[in-house]
Design goal:
The structure holds two protein chains of two kinds. Chain A is mainly β. Chain A has one domain: monomeric porin ompg (Porin, Beta Barrel), CATH 2.40.160. In chain A, about 0% of the residues lie in helices and about 60% in strands. Chain A is built from one helix and 18 strands. The longest helix of chain A is centred in the last third of the chain and has 7 residues. The termini of chain B are far apart. Helices cover about 30% and strands about 0% of the residues of chain B. By secondary structure, chain B is mainly alpha-helical. Chain B contains two helices and no strands. The chains are: A mainly beta, B mainly alpha. At the A-B interface, strand 1, strand 2, strand 3, strand 6 and strand 7 of A face helix 1 and helix 2 of B.
């Protein structure tokens, strides 16, 4: 949605083009206490131009998730730590997407729909976007809006009322989205608005600022997770607020280094939300060509955040009880920092301009990144997982 | 838009704020696109939105997964 108009905007009307991409990402997060988590994420996308101004694309992606996760976040006095009592799980999420885009010389519009489903979660989303160039294509204003109509499977807690300590966790997803009395279906509505402004500042510099505003209204807890509270060791289901507002502002800059056939990118982001989480994130990236067909990308990223206002460590939940009527065992709501580093090597093949070919461009790439976690306390959620490996292979074709 | 109106209304020449088409050869290269490959960016956001407590910064809207 934030395409930058370049000389391509002045190109003569091209013949019909098609494009296809396939990508597989493996996310492996080991644990010192159990089998950890593994996610295999294949993606396939294909698109075609429809006349000179329209482009239609479809996509399909899968999340094949398996591993072990603690059913209870907490410490049980006189017993083994909850971490070692992790529950094995596996699930597969599918998502299909369709997008139609209309492009004019100085503006574009797009509309998309996606449907995702897994055993305990259903999601429908509609997306609309628009971009417009002004001042001789030196500025591009982008706007994007997405609305999610999600449904989450939960245990049947309708009779709990105000007795929040009686909340039951969902045991498994076998009865989800059926009329069985032991389960219920909760709604989650998500609205995401993303404006951005890009500026071609110099012949070698591109700058961009933007924002993400997201409002969530509905069930946001992990239905399978319980939290150990108080010295009596009550273990109610995780209980998060129904309403959440999330805000982020970011700035990015790309600078060309033509003498070494490279470019450098920097990004800075500030985030805060209505659950009192605040975060700053910074990223640097270097892209460099080697020869005519190899492109190396190196990336480094640091993320630092505070915890949610109702977050406590396992020991604090046990000794002090909850901080109000909300409690969580989510690591991403705890004070923590993440560090990402890695690189990608791509082989790019374009037929020579003096040769006719059935394809315009072909690319094969492989990427590896290491994600390091730093938690503030050894009693934080998932403290047994200190890092994750991210491996990715991709193939794309434009013809 | 506000910037453009301010420049025009203030009688300022926009020439020094703009890059001419013949000067954009470097900017057209793929390594100068902040959003990069849309499919790759979506895959990155899919991971980072589940492992960071924050969202945004990539120019794309992420999707939920329920990967708890």
């Amino acid at each position: 949605m934030t395409a930058v108009a370049t000389t391509a905007a002045f190109a003569p009307r091209a013949r019909a083009t098609q494009d296809a991409q396939a990508r597989v990402t493996l996310f492996r997060e080991p644990s010192t206490q159990n089998e950890g988590i593994k996610v295999i994420h294949p993606q396939v996308d294909a698109g075609t131009s429809l006349g000179p101004d329209f482009h239609f694309a479809v996509g399909y992606e899968v999340d094949i998730v398996s591993g072990a996760t603690p059913a209870v976040f907490g410490v049980r006095p006189g017993s083994v730590d909850a971490v070692t009592q992790a529950t094995h799980f596996s699930d597969t999420r599918h998502q299909v997407t369709g997008t139609l885009a209309y492009t004019r010389p100085t503006s574009s519009w797009s509309f998309g729909y996606s449907y995702g489903f897994e055993s305990d979660y259903r999601s429908q989303a509609i997306t609309g976007g628009a971009t417009t160039d002004f001042l001789d294509h030196n500025f591009t204003l982008g706007l994007s809006y997405t609305h999610n109509f999600d449904r989450v499977c939960d245990a049947n807690n309708e009779n709990v009322g105000d007795q929040l300590l009686e909340l039951k966790a969902l045991g498994n997803s076998s009865h989800c989205f059926t009329s069985q009395p032991d389960v219920s279906t909760q709604k989650l509505s998500i609205d995401t608005f993303q404006p951005s402004l890009s500026w071609t500042a110099t012949p070698k510099t591109l700058l961009q600022i933007g924002s993400t505003i997201q409002v969530l209204d509905g069930f946001q807890s992990n239905p399978y997770r319980s939290v150990g509270l108080g010295t009596q060791n009550a273990q109610p289901q995780e209980h998060l607020p129904i309403y959440r507002q999330r805000y982020a502002v970011y700035a990015r800059g790309v600078y060309a280094l033509p003498a070494v056939r490279a470019s450098g990118l920097m990004m800075a982001r500030y985030y805060q939300d209505s659950w009192a989480v605040q975060a700053v994130t910074g990223e640097v990236q270097l892209n460099k060509y080697f020869g005519n067909q190899l492109l190396l990308t190196l990336r480094g990223r640091g993320h630092f955040q505070t915890g949610a206002s109702f977050y406590r460590t396992a020991t604090q939940y046990s000794e002090l009880g909850p901080g109000g009527k909300y409690w969580t065992g989510d690591r991403e709501l705890s004070p923590m920092s993440n560090y990402l580093t890695g690189g990608k090597l791509a082989w790019i093949k374009k037929p020579g301009q003096d040769r006719s070919s059935w394809y315009v461009e072909m690319e094969v790439s492989a990427k590896y990144e290491l994600l390091l976690y730093h938690l503030e306390s050894p009693d934080a959620p998932n403290a047994d997982r200190t890092h994750a490996h991210i491996m990715q292979g991709a193939f794309s074709l434009r013809f | 838009m506000i910037l453009a109106a301010a420049l025009a209304g203030g009688g300022c020449s926009t020439a020094k704020w703009t890059v001419k088409p013949h000067q954009r050869e470097l900017l057209a290269d793929r390594i100068m696109q902040p959003d990069g490959n849309a499919q790759e960016t979506a895959a990155d956001e899919h991971i980072l939105s589940n492992r960071e407590g924050a969202i945004g910064g990539s120019g794309t809207s992420g999707g939920g997964c329920g990967c708890n």
